[in-house]
Amino acid sequence: MATVKESKIDEGTLASADEKLLAGVDESREPELEKWFTASQGQLIWWRFKKHKMALIGIAVLALLYFVSMFAEFFGPYGTTQRFAAYENAPPTRIRFRTEEGRFRSPFIYGLTRTVDRATFRQVFTDDTSVMYDVKFFTRGEQGKILWLIPSNLKFIGVDGDVPLLIFGADRLGRDLFSRTLHGSRLSLFIGFGGVFLSFVLGTLLGGLSGYFGGVVDDVIQRMIDVLLSIPTIPLWMALAAAIPRHWGVTQTYFAITLVLAVVGWAGLARIVRGKLLALREEDFVLAARIFGSRQLYIIRRHLLPNFMSYLIVHITLAIPATILGETSLSFLGLGLQPPAVSWGVLLRDAQNITAIAQRPWQLIPGAFVVIAVLMFSFLGDGLRDAADPYKS
Q1: CB 95: neighbour CB atoms within 10 A?
Q2: Exposed/middle/buried for 249, CB within 10 Å: 0-12, 13-18, 19+?
Q3: What's the pLDDT at 26?
Q4: In this model, does residue 180 exceed pLDDT 90?
Q5: What angle do the packed helices 309-332 and 250-263 form, to 10 degrees?
Q6: Which one of 49-58, 120-129, 227-236, 269-278 scores highest in mean pLDDT?
Q7: Burial class of residue 10 in the structure, from the number of CB atoms within 10 Å of its CB (0-12 exposed, 13-18 middle, 19+ buried)
């Protein structure tokens, strides 16, 4: 019978093999490799996120939007209620750098002359080249409160003279659309945080209880989710928003809209959290925590939720633009925020008819801000998803 001889590997052979492997590694890259091997999960996510160019663009644009909205009293030349009676539905003012003679000079605008076209009975605004008004930076204007606290009449841009600077044109009451768009961004952008926070708490709490405990608790919560997901979103929004009393102030309506968006926004997240917990609750580290005597809610909060926290972060990022669209839709339909409140949806109500779109297209500019904000949030969420994915290089 043939015998199998055990082969012994010489220690010198192993040493030479290790030397060959180490020789293939560039010594200059050893600190970089060591940095990656010793980095925390948060550092790895941040380093991968920085490689996503569109996500960096998204976060930069969003930071600019939020910064300008917070200091809208400074960047907006006029207040939200300041009217210019002779400039109803006036087109955007053209800022010029060259005179009719072809000479370059500091930024200025021409005066406007309003006439009525006898054939169409439409207002026509023409430039009065005989009068020029200088555009000034860091000028003085209407008194306001920066960050709701600091009284100031300092404006980033303005014009000397009695002609208004209408960068985005004027609305049907002669109010500056540019200033109102900046002020409206404050409500439209920040309403998303309130609704997303409440829906996040409801979704993670109810989804966690449903997935971890199961049984009757799971059945009750899942039937609630089925009911919510089976109702069309827009009619549900309309029904809940219609229940808001019309005599409420801006602040009360703001929080009511936040609650409405939170009520209809938690079901999808709860179902995802339930599925994740069903997959994780039988893992060894969960069983060890139970044997150790940890409480149920502590196990969910400390051991289960952190295992898919990356998904929750991405969900929050993508839920904010959905909330912005929800508020815009409700306000556009007249069921959300009401004048004198100013939001992008309220401003878009002036462009509900074909006449406004055909003759005053500048009144659709707030809609462009909605598109930009939602698109930038999508870029940011896409970058966070790729950065938080442990299987993506």
Answers
A1: 13
A2: exposed
A3: 52
A4: yes
A5: 130
A6: 49-58
A7: exposed
Which residue's entry shows tokens 């950065």? 387
- Containing structural domain, residue 236: 181-388
Largest CA distance in the chain: 117
Hey, how many other C-beta atoms are within 10 angstroms of the C-beta on 86?
15
Question: Cα(67)–Cα(147) distance, rounded to whole angstroms?
Answer: 11
Residue whose tokens read 């076209």: 117
CA-CA distances (angstroms) from residue 29 to 34, 35, 36, 282?
A: 9, 10, 11, 41
169 assigned to some structural domain: yes
* Same domain? 171 vs 207: no
C-alpha distances (whole Å) from 342 to each of 63, 194, 360 are 21, 18, 19
Same domain, 304 and 224: yes
For residues 108 and 157, state if they share a domain. Answer: yes
**Cβ atoms within 10 A of the Cβ of 289, count?**
18
> Is the same domain home to 253 and 370?
yes
Q: Burial of 376 by CB count in 10 Å (0-12 exposed, 13-18 middle, 19+ buried)?
A: buried
Enter the tokens of residue 392.
């993506």
Per-residue pLDDT tens digits for 328-379: 888 887 777 888 889 998 898 888 777 777 888 899 999 999 999 999 998 9
- Domain contains 110: yes
Among 175, 198, 222, which residue terminates a domain?
Answer: 175
Closest to 282 measured CA to CA, from 212, 341, 352, 188: 212
365 and 236 co-located in one domain: yes
Which pLDDT score is estimated for 344?
Answer: 92
**Are residue 171 and residue 143 in the same domain, yes or no?**
yes
